[in-house]
Sequence to fold (33 residues):
Amino acid sequence: MNEFEIIKTYFRPLAKNFPGALSLLDDAALLDI
Fold:
């Protein structure tokens, strides 16, 4: 399992309720400061 499969399988579902995570599709995040 490569890093993208691990992110898709394990981490993306955890981030789905956090819009600032951008679905973990990019190396970025939105912060509300």
About this structure: The helical segments are 3-15. The chain has one domain: 1-27. The radius of gyration is 10 Å. The CA atoms of residues 11 and 28 lie 15 Å apart.
